[in-house]
Design goal:
This protein has 144 residues and is mostly helical. The chain contains six helices and no strands. The longest helix has 33 residues.
Amino acid sequence: EARKAAAEADRVAAAAAATSKDLDEKADAYASAETGDVNILISAANTSIASGKLSEAKRDLDKAAKQIEESGEKVPAIKYSYARLYDAMAKRAKSPEERIGLLEKAQQQYDAFAATGAGAKVARARERSDEITEEIAELQGGAP
């Protein structure tokens, strides 16, 4: 009887695993459909940056960047969001070298946005890029 019970338990466990896998796949498909729009992903990333959830923001921006690349779209807003992400990451950096590297990435993204973007954020991107130049110089022990 123990063997029969064990066999039944194995069968139930296998069925549960199959159901779980099916539900996981359906949830992933639903999540992909719900977050498939580039602008939604960028907005979600901006919200994550504002709330300090930087790994979530990076994940959403990377997903949006992949979709942009695949579609051939031009979406300058993603550059500004990446700039803000790297800027926020730099504030958490543990060493001056790491901070400088992240600030340089942020500056590249701010500059790229300023070259292709539009609106009030372009001026802010230029200002922040100039500020970053000064911050990097200070971190390197020199004057801007």
